[in-house]
Design a protein that fits this description.
The protein is α/β, with parallel strands linked by helices and 474 residues long. The chain has 2 domains: 246 residues, Rossmann fold, CATH 3.40.50; 209 residues, Rossmann fold (3-Layer(aba) Sandwich). 45% of the residues lie in helices and 19% in strands. It contains 17 helices and 16 strands. The strands form 2 sheets. The protein has a 10-stranded mixed sheet, sandwiched between helices. Strands 13-12-11-14-15-16 form a 6-stranded parallel sheet, sandwiched between helices. Strand 9 and strand 10 form a beta hairpin. Helix 1 crosses helix 17, helix 4 crosses helix 5 and helix 11 packs parallel to helix 12.
Protein backbone atom coordinates (compact mmCIF):
# COMPACT_ATOMS: atom_id res chain seq x y z
CA UNK A 1 0.00 0.00 0.00
CA UNK A 2 1.34 3.44 -0.94
CA UNK A 3 2.40 5.76 1.82
CA UNK A 4 0.55 9.07 2.17
CA UNK A 5 2.74 12.16 2.54
CA UNK A 6 0.95 15.29 3.72
CA UNK A 7 2.62 18.66 3.23
CA UNK A 8 1.22 21.81 4.82
CA UNK A 9 2.50 25.07 6.22
CA UNK A 10 2.14 23.83 9.81
CA UNK A 11 2.20 20.30 11.21
CA UNK A 12 -0.14 19.10 13.97
CA UNK A 13 0.40 16.19 16.32
CA UNK A 14 -2.35 13.69 15.35
CA UNK A 15 -2.61 12.52 18.99
CA UNK A 16 -3.95 15.89 20.11
CA UNK A 17 -7.41 17.35 19.64
CA UNK A 18 -7.12 19.89 16.86
CA UNK A 19 -8.95 23.19 16.61
CA UNK A 20 -8.45 23.24 12.84
CA UNK A 21 -10.13 20.99 10.31
CA UNK A 22 -6.98 19.81 8.52
CA UNK A 23 -5.56 17.64 11.32
CA UNK A 24 -8.94 16.01 11.97
CA UNK A 25 -9.41 15.46 8.25
CA UNK A 26 -6.21 13.61 7.52
CA UNK A 27 -5.08 11.94 10.75
CA UNK A 28 -7.11 8.75 10.14
CA UNK A 29 -5.72 8.38 6.63
CA UNK A 30 -2.17 8.80 7.87
CA UNK A 31 -2.61 6.32 10.68
CA UNK A 32 -4.30 3.71 8.47
CA UNK A 33 -1.62 3.53 5.78
CA UNK A 34 1.36 4.84 7.69
CA UNK A 35 2.60 8.14 6.43
CA UNK A 36 4.50 11.34 6.91
CA UNK A 37 3.40 14.89 7.65
CA UNK A 38 5.90 17.53 6.55
CA UNK A 39 5.86 21.28 7.18
CA UNK A 40 7.13 24.23 9.13
CA UNK A 41 7.77 23.67 12.83
CA UNK A 42 6.46 27.13 13.76
CA UNK A 43 9.93 28.03 15.03
CA UNK A 44 12.27 30.68 13.67
CA UNK A 45 15.99 31.17 14.11
CA UNK A 46 18.45 33.97 13.52
CA UNK A 47 21.73 32.01 13.58
CA UNK A 48 22.58 29.27 11.06
CA UNK A 49 23.91 27.01 13.81
CA UNK A 50 20.49 27.07 15.50
CA UNK A 51 18.88 25.63 12.37
CA UNK A 52 20.94 22.45 12.43
CA UNK A 53 20.80 21.66 16.12
CA UNK A 54 19.13 18.35 17.03
CA UNK A 55 17.87 17.55 13.54
CA UNK A 56 18.76 15.52 10.46
CA UNK A 57 19.76 17.53 7.39
CA UNK A 58 17.72 20.46 8.63
CA UNK A 59 14.63 18.32 9.34
CA UNK A 60 13.26 17.50 12.80
CA UNK A 61 11.90 13.93 12.81
CA UNK A 62 9.41 12.49 15.31
CA UNK A 63 7.44 9.23 15.18
CA UNK A 64 3.85 9.15 16.43
CA UNK A 65 2.56 5.60 15.99
CA UNK A 66 2.66 4.88 12.26
CA UNK A 67 3.03 8.56 11.41
CA UNK A 68 6.29 10.44 11.00
CA UNK A 69 6.26 14.17 11.72
CA UNK A 70 8.95 15.99 9.74
CA UNK A 71 9.42 19.72 10.35
CA UNK A 72 11.81 22.46 9.34
CA UNK A 73 12.56 25.77 11.00
CA UNK A 74 12.59 29.09 9.13
CA UNK A 75 14.97 31.97 9.53
CA UNK A 76 13.44 35.25 10.61
CA UNK A 77 13.71 36.86 7.19
CA UNK A 78 11.93 33.98 5.47
CA UNK A 79 9.20 34.01 8.11
CA UNK A 80 8.62 37.71 7.48
CA UNK A 81 8.60 37.49 3.68
CA UNK A 82 7.07 34.06 3.03
CA UNK A 83 4.53 33.84 5.87
CA UNK A 84 3.73 37.36 7.03
CA UNK A 85 4.50 38.86 3.65
CA UNK A 86 3.38 36.78 0.69
CA UNK A 87 0.98 34.33 2.34
CA UNK A 88 -0.80 36.81 4.62
CA UNK A 89 -0.34 40.16 2.85
CA UNK A 90 -0.72 39.03 -0.77
CA UNK A 91 -2.46 35.68 -1.24
CA UNK A 92 -4.88 35.80 1.70
CA UNK A 93 -6.40 39.25 0.91
CA UNK A 94 -6.47 38.70 -2.86
CA UNK A 95 -8.12 35.27 -2.61
CA UNK A 96 -10.72 36.84 -0.28
CA UNK A 97 -11.43 39.68 -2.77
CA UNK A 98 -9.64 42.34 -0.68
CA UNK A 99 -7.22 43.96 -3.12
CA UNK A 100 -7.35 47.08 -0.96
CA UNK A 101 -5.51 45.21 1.81
CA UNK A 102 -2.91 43.49 -0.38
CA UNK A 103 0.72 44.64 -0.22
CA UNK A 104 2.62 43.75 -3.37
CA UNK A 105 6.29 43.84 -2.37
CA UNK A 106 8.90 42.12 -4.55
CA UNK A 107 10.67 40.88 -1.39
CA UNK A 108 7.58 38.92 -0.42
CA UNK A 109 7.52 37.00 -3.71
CA UNK A 110 11.23 36.19 -3.43
CA UNK A 111 10.78 34.88 0.11
CA UNK A 112 7.79 32.78 -0.95
CA UNK A 113 9.78 31.11 -3.73
CA UNK A 114 12.76 30.60 -1.45
CA UNK A 115 10.77 28.81 1.26
CA UNK A 116 8.98 26.59 -1.25
CA UNK A 117 12.40 25.66 -2.68
CA UNK A 118 13.60 24.94 0.87
CA UNK A 119 10.59 22.70 1.55
CA UNK A 120 11.24 20.79 -1.68
CA UNK A 121 14.94 20.38 -0.92
CA UNK A 122 14.23 19.04 2.57
CA UNK A 123 11.31 16.83 1.51
CA UNK A 124 12.69 15.22 -1.64
CA UNK A 125 15.32 12.99 0.09
CA UNK A 126 12.62 11.67 2.44
CA UNK A 127 10.31 10.45 -0.33
CA UNK A 128 9.84 6.84 -1.42
CA UNK A 129 9.08 5.87 -5.05
CA UNK A 130 5.46 4.84 -4.37
CA UNK A 131 4.54 7.76 -2.06
CA UNK A 132 1.39 9.75 -2.77
CA UNK A 133 1.95 13.43 -1.96
CA UNK A 134 -0.91 15.69 -0.87
CA UNK A 135 -0.03 19.39 -0.59
CA UNK A 136 -2.32 21.74 1.30
CA UNK A 137 -3.20 25.38 0.85
CA UNK A 138 -2.00 28.68 -0.52
CA UNK A 139 1.33 28.74 1.31
CA UNK A 140 2.70 25.99 -0.94
CA UNK A 141 1.33 26.57 -4.46
CA UNK A 142 4.76 26.22 -6.18
CA UNK A 143 5.89 23.14 -4.22
CA UNK A 144 5.07 20.56 -6.89
CA UNK A 145 6.96 22.55 -9.54
CA UNK A 146 10.02 22.63 -7.28
CA UNK A 147 9.76 18.88 -6.65
CA UNK A 148 9.29 18.13 -10.36
CA UNK A 149 12.44 20.16 -11.13
CA UNK A 150 14.35 17.80 -8.82
CA UNK A 151 13.05 14.76 -10.68
CA UNK A 152 10.09 13.82 -8.48
CA UNK A 153 7.67 11.67 -10.47
CA UNK A 154 5.30 10.80 -7.63
CA UNK A 155 1.57 11.57 -7.82
CA UNK A 156 1.10 15.05 -6.31
CA UNK A 157 -2.28 16.57 -5.45
CA UNK A 158 -3.04 20.05 -4.17
CA UNK A 159 -6.03 21.18 -2.13
CA UNK A 160 -6.87 24.86 -1.68
CA UNK A 161 -8.75 25.49 1.57
CA UNK A 162 -9.56 29.14 0.79
CA UNK A 163 -11.82 30.48 -2.00
CA UNK A 164 -10.75 31.23 -5.56
CA UNK A 165 -11.43 34.84 -6.62
CA UNK A 166 -12.79 35.85 -10.03
CA UNK A 167 -10.18 35.84 -12.84
CA UNK A 168 -9.52 39.58 -12.92
CA UNK A 169 -8.94 39.68 -9.16
CA UNK A 170 -6.47 36.79 -9.40
CA UNK A 171 -4.69 38.51 -12.27
CA UNK A 172 -3.91 41.48 -10.01
CA UNK A 173 -1.15 39.44 -8.35
CA UNK A 174 2.09 40.45 -10.08
CA UNK A 175 3.32 36.83 -10.11
CA UNK A 176 -0.04 35.30 -11.08
CA UNK A 177 1.24 33.74 -14.33
CA UNK A 178 4.04 31.97 -12.46
CA UNK A 179 1.60 30.77 -9.80
CA UNK A 180 -0.76 29.36 -12.43
CA UNK A 181 2.06 27.62 -14.28
CA UNK A 182 3.14 26.14 -10.93
CA UNK A 183 -0.32 24.66 -10.38
CA UNK A 184 -0.03 22.72 -13.63
CA UNK A 185 2.83 20.72 -12.07
CA UNK A 186 0.20 18.95 -9.94
CA UNK A 187 -1.83 15.99 -11.11
CA UNK A 188 -4.97 17.19 -9.32
CA UNK A 189 -6.06 20.55 -7.92
CA UNK A 190 -8.94 20.27 -5.47
CA UNK A 191 -11.14 23.24 -4.59
CA UNK A 192 -13.92 23.72 -2.06
CA UNK A 193 -16.89 24.53 -4.31
CA UNK A 194 -18.22 24.44 -7.85
CA UNK A 195 -18.03 28.24 -7.84
CA UNK A 196 -14.31 28.09 -7.04
CA UNK A 197 -13.84 25.55 -9.81
CA UNK A 198 -15.64 27.81 -12.30
CA UNK A 199 -13.45 30.77 -11.34
CA UNK A 200 -10.27 28.71 -11.71
CA UNK A 201 -11.21 27.26 -15.09
CA UNK A 202 -12.19 30.68 -16.44
CA UNK A 203 -8.92 32.12 -15.13
CA UNK A 204 -6.84 29.37 -16.77
CA UNK A 205 -8.71 29.77 -20.06
CA UNK A 206 -8.45 33.56 -20.17
CA UNK A 207 -4.89 34.00 -18.88
CA UNK A 208 -3.14 30.88 -20.22
CA UNK A 209 -5.33 29.82 -23.11
CA UNK A 210 -5.99 26.54 -21.30
CA UNK A 211 -8.15 23.96 -23.05
CA UNK A 212 -11.05 22.53 -21.03
CA UNK A 213 -11.20 18.79 -21.70
CA UNK A 214 -13.87 16.20 -20.77
CA UNK A 215 -14.06 14.77 -17.25
CA UNK A 216 -12.61 17.81 -15.49
CA UNK A 217 -9.20 18.11 -17.18
CA UNK A 218 -7.36 21.27 -18.23
CA UNK A 219 -4.52 21.34 -20.76
CA UNK A 220 -1.88 24.07 -20.74
CA UNK A 221 1.93 24.44 -20.56
CA UNK A 222 2.23 20.95 -22.11
CA UNK A 223 0.65 19.51 -18.95
CA UNK A 224 -2.76 17.97 -18.29
CA UNK A 225 -4.25 18.85 -14.93
CA UNK A 226 -7.42 17.53 -13.34
CA UNK A 227 -9.56 20.02 -11.40
CA UNK A 228 -12.37 19.08 -9.05
CA UNK A 229 -14.59 20.39 -6.24
CA UNK A 230 -14.18 18.51 -2.96
CA UNK A 231 -16.05 20.35 -0.19
CA UNK A 232 -14.29 19.54 3.07
CA UNK A 233 -16.40 17.88 5.72
CA UNK A 234 -16.13 17.10 9.39
CA UNK A 235 -16.10 13.97 11.52
CA UNK A 236 -19.74 14.11 12.63
CA UNK A 237 -19.46 11.13 14.96
CA UNK A 238 -16.33 12.49 16.67
CA UNK A 239 -17.97 15.86 17.27
CA UNK A 240 -21.17 14.26 18.58
CA UNK A 241 -19.02 12.31 21.04
CA UNK A 242 -17.47 15.59 22.20
CA UNK A 243 -20.97 16.98 22.79
CA UNK A 244 -21.76 14.06 25.09
CA UNK A 245 -18.40 14.12 26.88
CA UNK A 246 -17.93 15.73 30.30
CA UNK A 247 -16.58 19.07 29.08
CA UNK A 248 -19.34 19.48 26.50
CA UNK A 249 -22.14 18.59 28.91
CA UNK A 250 -20.65 20.85 31.58
CA UNK A 251 -20.56 23.82 29.22
CA UNK A 252 -24.14 23.15 28.05
CA UNK A 253 -25.43 23.00 31.65
CA UNK A 254 -23.61 26.16 32.69
CA UNK A 255 -24.81 28.16 29.69
CA UNK A 256 -28.43 27.01 30.05
CA UNK A 257 -28.38 27.88 33.77
CA UNK A 258 -26.84 31.32 33.27
CA UNK A 259 -29.00 32.26 30.28
CA UNK A 260 -32.23 30.48 31.21
CA UNK A 261 -34.27 33.61 30.46
CA UNK A 262 -32.41 34.54 27.26
CA UNK A 263 -32.28 33.51 23.63
CA UNK A 264 -28.62 32.89 22.78
CA UNK A 265 -27.09 33.85 19.46
CA UNK A 266 -23.56 32.61 18.85
CA UNK A 267 -20.65 33.52 16.61
CA UNK A 268 -17.37 31.59 16.70
CA UNK A 269 -14.63 32.95 14.46
CA UNK A 270 -11.02 33.94 14.19
CA UNK A 271 -10.55 37.70 14.38
CA UNK A 272 -10.15 38.16 10.63
CA UNK A 273 -11.47 40.75 8.20
CA UNK A 274 -12.87 37.98 5.99
CA UNK A 275 -15.32 36.89 8.72
CA UNK A 276 -17.67 39.88 8.47
CA UNK A 277 -17.63 40.58 12.23
CA UNK A 278 -18.36 44.34 12.13
CA UNK A 279 -21.22 43.75 9.70
CA UNK A 280 -22.61 41.04 12.02
CA UNK A 281 -22.57 43.39 15.02
CA UNK A 282 -24.29 46.08 12.94
CA UNK A 283 -26.99 43.59 11.93
CA UNK A 284 -27.54 42.70 15.59
CA UNK A 285 -27.86 46.39 16.41
CA UNK A 286 -30.48 46.73 13.67
CA UNK A 287 -32.33 43.77 15.20
CA UNK A 288 -32.50 45.45 18.61
CA UNK A 289 -33.52 48.75 17.10
CA UNK A 290 -36.30 47.49 14.80
CA UNK A 291 -37.46 44.40 16.70
CA UNK A 292 -37.55 45.76 20.26
CA UNK A 293 -39.12 42.58 21.62
CA UNK A 294 -35.58 41.14 21.54
CA UNK A 295 -34.28 43.66 24.08
CA UNK A 296 -33.54 42.00 27.42
CA UNK A 297 -34.29 38.70 25.65
CA UNK A 298 -31.57 38.06 23.02
CA UNK A 299 -27.87 37.92 23.83
CA UNK A 300 -25.12 37.58 21.24
CA UNK A 301 -22.01 35.73 22.37
CA UNK A 302 -19.26 36.56 19.89
CA UNK A 303 -16.00 34.65 20.23
CA UNK A 304 -13.22 36.14 18.10
CA UNK A 305 -10.05 34.14 18.62
CA UNK A 306 -6.75 36.02 18.15
CA UNK A 307 -5.40 35.74 14.63
CA UNK A 308 -2.30 37.18 12.91
CA UNK A 309 -2.01 39.91 15.53
CA UNK A 310 1.32 41.08 14.12
CA UNK A 311 -0.43 42.45 11.01
CA UNK A 312 -1.74 46.03 11.03
CA UNK A 313 -5.13 45.26 9.45
CA UNK A 314 -5.99 43.10 12.45
CA UNK A 315 -5.19 45.87 14.94
CA UNK A 316 -7.70 48.08 13.12
CA UNK A 317 -10.32 45.31 13.18
CA UNK A 318 -9.88 44.70 16.89
CA UNK A 319 -10.33 48.40 17.66
CA UNK A 320 -13.45 48.51 15.46
CA UNK A 321 -14.96 45.48 17.22
CA UNK A 322 -14.20 46.93 20.65
CA UNK A 323 -15.94 50.16 19.62
CA UNK A 324 -19.02 48.52 18.03
CA UNK A 325 -19.64 46.09 20.90
CA UNK A 326 -19.09 48.77 23.50
CA UNK A 327 -21.54 51.11 21.75
CA UNK A 328 -24.32 48.49 21.63
CA UNK A 329 -23.87 47.58 25.27
CA UNK A 330 -23.81 51.25 26.22
CA UNK A 331 -26.91 52.15 24.18
CA UNK A 332 -29.08 49.10 24.88
CA UNK A 333 -27.68 47.33 27.93
CA UNK A 334 -29.47 47.12 31.26
CA UNK A 335 -28.24 46.32 34.76
CA UNK A 336 -29.39 42.73 34.31
CA UNK A 337 -28.76 42.30 30.57
CA UNK A 338 -25.75 42.81 28.31
CA UNK A 339 -26.65 42.55 24.60
CA UNK A 340 -23.20 41.44 23.41
CA UNK A 341 -20.67 39.25 25.17
CA UNK A 342 -17.51 39.82 23.13
CA UNK A 343 -14.67 37.39 23.92
CA UNK A 344 -11.28 37.90 22.29
CA UNK A 345 -9.62 34.59 23.15
CA UNK A 346 -9.73 30.91 22.24
CA UNK A 347 -12.31 28.50 23.64
CA UNK A 348 -11.18 24.88 24.10
CA UNK A 349 -12.49 22.62 21.34
CA UNK A 350 -13.93 20.19 23.90
CA UNK A 351 -16.21 22.93 25.22
CA UNK A 352 -17.49 24.14 21.86
CA UNK A 353 -20.19 21.46 21.37
CA UNK A 354 -21.87 22.46 24.64
CA UNK A 355 -21.73 26.10 23.62
CA UNK A 356 -23.24 25.31 20.23
CA UNK A 357 -26.03 23.20 21.70
CA UNK A 358 -27.05 25.87 24.21
CA UNK A 359 -27.50 28.46 21.42
CA UNK A 360 -30.77 29.02 19.59
CA UNK A 361 -29.09 30.67 16.58
CA UNK A 362 -25.62 30.45 15.05
CA UNK A 363 -24.42 33.42 13.02
CA UNK A 364 -21.90 32.27 10.40
CA UNK A 365 -21.74 35.32 8.19
CA UNK A 366 -18.30 35.72 6.58
CA UNK A 367 -17.81 38.14 3.72
CA UNK A 368 -15.91 35.33 1.97
CA UNK A 369 -14.86 31.90 3.19
CA UNK A 370 -13.52 28.74 1.62
CA UNK A 371 -15.87 26.44 3.53
CA UNK A 372 -16.38 27.32 7.24
CA UNK A 373 -16.60 24.21 9.39
CA UNK A 374 -18.16 26.14 12.29
CA UNK A 375 -21.46 25.95 10.39
CA UNK A 376 -21.22 22.17 10.23
CA UNK A 377 -20.05 21.83 13.83
CA UNK A 378 -23.05 23.83 15.04
CA UNK A 379 -25.41 21.48 13.21
CA UNK A 380 -23.70 18.35 14.52
CA UNK A 381 -23.95 19.56 18.14
CA UNK A 382 -27.71 20.24 18.12
CA UNK A 383 -30.42 18.27 19.87
CA UNK A 384 -32.44 16.83 16.93
CA UNK A 385 -35.65 17.18 18.95
CA UNK A 386 -35.09 20.91 19.59
CA UNK A 387 -32.42 22.17 17.19
CA UNK A 388 -31.09 25.68 16.78
CA UNK A 389 -31.13 27.58 13.49
CA UNK A 390 -28.13 28.30 11.27
CA UNK A 391 -27.93 31.77 9.70
CA UNK A 392 -25.31 31.41 6.98
CA UNK A 393 -23.61 33.81 4.58
CA UNK A 394 -24.20 33.00 0.94
CA UNK A 395 -20.51 33.84 0.43
CA UNK A 396 -19.30 30.97 2.64
CA UNK A 397 -18.35 27.84 0.73
CA UNK A 398 -20.67 25.89 3.02
CA UNK A 399 -23.68 27.68 1.51
CA UNK A 400 -23.33 25.61 -1.66
CA UNK A 401 -24.13 22.48 0.37
CA UNK A 402 -26.24 23.78 3.28
CA UNK A 403 -29.18 25.15 1.35
CA UNK A 404 -31.70 24.58 4.18
CA UNK A 405 -29.91 27.15 6.37
CA UNK A 406 -31.16 30.75 6.34
CA UNK A 407 -28.86 32.21 3.69
CA UNK A 408 -28.03 35.92 3.96
CA UNK A 409 -25.99 38.65 2.32
CA UNK A 410 -23.67 39.78 5.16
CA UNK A 411 -23.27 43.22 3.58
CA UNK A 412 -27.04 43.78 4.06
CA UNK A 413 -27.50 44.56 7.76
CA UNK A 414 -31.27 44.92 7.42
CA UNK A 415 -31.67 41.61 5.56
CA UNK A 416 -29.42 39.79 8.02
CA UNK A 417 -31.39 41.20 10.96
CA UNK A 418 -34.63 40.02 9.37
CA UNK A 419 -33.16 36.52 8.98
CA UNK A 420 -32.10 36.52 12.63
CA UNK A 421 -35.63 37.52 13.64
CA UNK A 422 -37.02 34.70 11.52
CA UNK A 423 -34.59 32.26 13.19
CA UNK A 424 -35.61 33.41 16.68
CA UNK A 425 -39.31 32.93 15.92
CA UNK A 426 -39.11 29.81 13.74
CA UNK A 427 -41.63 27.09 14.74
CA UNK A 428 -40.26 23.86 16.14
CA UNK A 429 -41.52 21.77 13.21
CA UNK A 430 -39.67 23.87 10.66
CA UNK A 431 -36.50 23.85 12.76
CA UNK A 432 -36.56 20.06 12.97
CA UNK A 433 -37.23 19.67 9.24
CA UNK A 434 -34.39 22.00 8.25
CA UNK A 435 -31.95 20.46 10.73
CA UNK A 436 -32.74 16.92 9.58
CA UNK A 437 -32.01 17.81 5.95
CA UNK A 438 -28.79 19.62 6.86
CA UNK A 439 -27.58 16.71 8.98
CA UNK A 440 -28.18 14.28 6.12
CA UNK A 441 -25.88 16.41 3.97
CA UNK A 442 -23.02 16.73 6.44
CA UNK A 443 -23.19 13.02 7.26
CA UNK A 444 -23.05 12.05 3.58
CA UNK A 445 -20.24 14.44 2.73
CA UNK A 446 -18.18 14.04 5.88
CA UNK A 447 -14.45 14.24 6.34
CA UNK A 448 -13.94 10.61 5.35
CA UNK A 449 -15.82 11.16 2.06
CA UNK A 450 -13.67 14.25 1.41
CA UNK A 451 -10.36 12.48 1.95
CA UNK A 452 -11.31 9.36 -0.01
CA UNK A 453 -12.88 11.32 -2.87
CA UNK A 454 -9.76 13.46 -3.28
CA UNK A 455 -7.26 10.59 -3.11
CA UNK A 456 -9.33 8.41 -5.45
CA UNK A 457 -9.54 11.27 -7.93
CA UNK A 458 -5.77 11.84 -7.66
CA UNK A 459 -5.05 8.19 -8.48
CA UNK A 460 -7.49 8.33 -11.40
CA UNK A 461 -5.87 11.53 -12.69
CA UNK A 462 -2.44 9.88 -12.66
CA UNK A 463 -3.75 6.83 -14.53
CA UNK A 464 -5.47 9.03 -17.11
CA UNK A 465 -2.37 11.15 -17.64
CA UNK A 466 -0.19 8.06 -18.09
CA UNK A 467 -2.71 6.70 -20.60
CA UNK A 468 -2.64 9.93 -22.59
CA UNK A 469 1.15 9.92 -22.54
CA UNK A 470 1.46 6.40 -24.05
CA UNK A 471 2.42 6.42 -27.73
CA UNK A 472 -0.35 5.34 -30.07
CA UNK A 473 0.18 2.13 -31.97
CA UNK A 474 0.89 2.70 -35.62
Amino acid sequence: MSRLVIVSNRVADPRKAAAGGLAVAIKDGLQQTGGMWFGWSGKTFSDASDANANNHNGVHMQSVGRVQLATVDLNQQDYETYYLGYANNVLWPVFHNRLDLAKFDVRFGSGYRRVNQLFAQRLFPLLKPDDIIWVHDYHLIPLAAELRAMGCGNPIGFFLHIPVPPPLIMAAIPEHEWLMRSLFAYDLVGLQTQSDMMHFVRYAESEAGAEWLPDGYLRAFNRTLRVGAFPIGMDVGEFADLADAREGLDMFSRMRAEYSRRELLLGVDRLDYSKGLPQRIQAFRYLLEHYPENRKRATLIQIAAPSREDLGAYDDLRREMDSLCGAINGDYGELDWMPVRYIHRNVARKRLPGLYRSSQVALVTPLRDGMNLVAKEFLAAQDPADPGVLVLSRFAGAAEQLKEALLVNPYDSQGTAQAIQRALTMPLGERIERHSALMATIRKYDVHWWRNAFLDSLKEAVRATEQHAKPHAS
